[in-house]
TrEMBL record:
PANTHER family: FAILED AXON CONNECTIONS-RELATED (PTHR12289:SF41), METAXIN RELATED (PTHR12289). It comes from SAR86 cluster bacterium. InterPro entries: FAX/IsoI-like (IPR026928), Glutathione_S-Trfase (IPR040079), Mito_Protein_Transport_Metaxin (IPR050931), Thioredoxin-like_fold (IPR012336), Thioredoxin-like_sf (IPR036249). Residues 18-114 form the Thioredoxin-like fold domain. Pfam families: GST_N_4 (PF17172). This is Glutathione S-transferase family protein. It comes from the Bacteria.
């Protein structure tokens, strides 16, 4: 049986990572038998990132490569039904969500002083109390470096919030009022957007990004609709 390895629950979420949640949604929708296990330390994962999929004892990293693999073994059930235009539109939205808005979500959790204690408890709660602040601070430095390398980390918080609002407005404009992006049932690109937005809307306590996102009612309703359709929610239900 396939094994999907994800991060453990945190911040009031059952599945905290957009990439892990997207993969769980996709595999559930494909009705592929799989079990989920947890790994708290991404350094133990291939490429140092979660999720990964264990296939016949081999570890397959990256949620997108996993989707391609799942497409292969289901004879095209992931991407096969999409026209090139739909795939182009979906992939552009996925890149917006996962390569831009995702980083603003990371910053809203990791780099906000007021939210920082939640990271220490949520991600490093299993580390011995004595070394916990040190281990957490080292990880934070890495996140901060990565954010700066991305480029977003060079901007003021005010500008980061303005970037986030433009991303949210773009997604709000792109998702349908009813139904899903490209059909009667949700597909890979719906899972990508909804998995990210679930972690923004539902993480506890709210981050500055949660507060910015809340007024985007259409995006919120869409996020709920996708989760309900597949029966997989980021939060515990
Ligand atoms: N492109 C990867 C991204 C995965 C990713 O960034 N996972 C995060 C959790 S949301 C992670 O493991 N981060 C740990 C790190 O970067 O050290 C995918 O689609 O699976």
């Amino acid at each position: 049986m396939l094994e999907l390895v994800t991060l453990p629950p945190a911040f009031g979420m059952r599945n905290i990572s957009p990439f892990c949640l997207k993969s769980e949604m996709l595999m559930t929708s494909l009705e592929i038998p799989f079990k989920m296990t947890q790994e708290a330390d991404p350094r133990q994962a291939p490429n140092g990132k979660l999720p990964f999929l264990v296939v016949d004892g081999k570890r397959l990293p990256d949620s997108e490569l996993m989707a391609v693999y799942l497409d292969d073994i289901t004879q095209g059930k992931v991407y096969g039904g999409l026209t090139p235009a739909q795939n182009g539109q979906g992939l552009a939205l996925a890149r917006l969500a996962e390569d831009h808005l995702y980083w603003l979500m990371v910053a809203s959790r990791w780099l906000d002083e007021a939210w920082w204690p939640n990271i220490v408890e949520g991600f490093f709660g299993i580390a011995p109390r004595l070394v916990r602040p040190l281990v957490a601070a080292m990880a934070r430095r890495e996140v901060s470096k990565g954010y700066r390398l991305h480029g977003l980390g060079r901007h003021s918080l005010e500008d980061q919030k303005a970037f986030a609002l433009r991303d949210l407005a773009a997604l709000e404009g792109a998702v349908p009022e009813l139904g899903f992006l490209f059909g009667d049932s949700p597909g890979i690109y719906d899972f990508t957007i909804a998995a990210l937005m679930a972690g923004i809307f539902d993480n506890q306590p709210a981050t500055w990004l949660t507060t910015l996102a809340m007024p985007f009612a259409r995006l919120h309703a869409y996020t709920e609709r996708v989760q309900a359709a597949v029966g997989v929610y980021g939060r515990p239900v």
